[in-house]
Amino acid sequence: MSTKLLDIPGIGRQRFLREYWQRKPLLVRRALPGMQPLLSRRELFELALRDDVEARVVQREGRQWDVRHAPLARRDLPAVRTPRWTLLVQGVDLHDEGVAGLLRRFRFVPDARLDDLMISWASDGGGVGPHVDEYDVFLLQAQGRRRWRIGAVDRPRLQPGQPLKLLQGFVPEQDFVVEPGDLLYLPPGWGHDGIADGECMTYSVGFRAPPGDELLRQLLWKMAEELQPSPRYSDRGKLSARRGAHPARLPEDMVEFVAEAFARLRPGKADFARVLGELLTEPKQEVVFEAGDAREAARIVARRGLRLDRRTRMLWSRSGLSINGESVPGEAGRSPLLRCLADARELDAAQYAQASPAERELIAQWCEAGWAHAGRD
Fold it and tell me: Which pLDDT belongs to residue 119?
């Protein structure tokens, strides 16, 4: 499963991260020479029709746009020769090992940021209009040609009455055509408009960048769920007949009661790391793991080693380790071997032989849940 990280011809990863990442766009010609689609058009269309796949069809007629969201039926897909339509299939890495392997080539950015790989197929003239993303994205041309117009957008204004968030008055600064193997990086806040020049396929690697307030809401909600049961509010001995003159007044002791309950959270850095790890490894809603046989898996793992399922998310910090929305408790959460598994996404048989009984028990549970599997021959 080990995957060579993507090199960036003429620049290299270190210079890219220092000079371009979240700063300015970069077009890399022939970043992946000889690039071929990992899924055929037919395979992509079939995938888009599945109930467990997030997909949409975008079509343009003149100045008006139409969007159809999953679940999609065959009739929702226009004829291939119909111009100006696009099929977008989200999270293809969850469903195809080859696509998951391509996504892993972008792991020079932390897994906590790496989101998914979307594939868009477009007929001649197809696209999704000028828009801006609030996250980083790599756009890899896999088949055919696409014309890109890009430009910085300080204060985006949207076109009214459209089902898409289309930029109004978009003024591009650069205009170029990409071919298979070309890679375009765009930082947050850069408007872009891609139009297919004939039939084409583009792979979009997106990165998570949730707003701080959204993350904080999720963290506090999760922490509150874990609070130990506390006494119920009581105003026994605190009421008096004189208060009856102002029945709408919020009692001060109730405010103090809630303030004290909030203060009991007292989260530290380790708490934030644990809960954040659980949030960021939570599987996507459409993910369903296939249960395995723990005893059989343990026998084969001892011979072949172990690999994580392509849909498994695993992160570690100084204080612990999270996998698929769950924290690993105790010493195992600080296990160097399990950290190695998270980084490499595999262990060979020699590494597995060094596992402690507690580590082997965890690995057996993950195999039984379908989160990990025996390595391949």
Answer: 98
> Residues 6 or more apart from 368 whose CB is under 8 A from it?
291, 292, 293, 294, 297
Kind and range of the H or E run holding 104: helix 97-104
The pLDDT tens digits for 59-110 are 999 999 999 999 999 999 999 999 999 999 999 999 999 999 999 999 999 9
For residues 367 and 80, give the distance between their C-alpha atoms in angstroms, rounded to a whole number.
42
DSSP structure class, residue 116: E
CA angle 75, 77, 78 (to 5 degrees): 100
Q: ∠130-127-106 over CA atoms, to 5°?
A: 85
Give me the half-sphere count of Cα atoms (radius 13 Å) on the Cβ side of residue 346: 13
Q: What is the phi-psi region of residue 89: left when phi exceeds 0, alpha when psi lies from -120 to 50, beta otherwise?
A: beta
C-alpha 87 chain-centroid distance: 19
Q: Using H for helix, E for strand and C for coil, what is the string for 156-196?
A: CCECCCCCCCCECCCCCCEEEEECCCCEEEECCCEEEEEEE
Q: Alpha-carbon distance 338 to 122, whole Å?
A: 42
Which residues are CB-neighbours of 352 under 8 A, at least 6 positions away?
301, 302, 305, 306, 360, 363
With tokens 């103090």, the residue in question is 256
At 243 the pLDDT is: 60
pTM of the predicted protein model: 0.90
Nearest to 272 by CA among 230, 229, 332, 212: 212
pLDDT band, very low/low/confident/very high, at 3 (cuts 50, 70, 90): confident
d(CA 344, CA 251): 56
Query: Rounded distance, CA 324 to CA 347, Å?
Result: 18
Percentage of the chain lying above the pLDDT 90 cut: 76
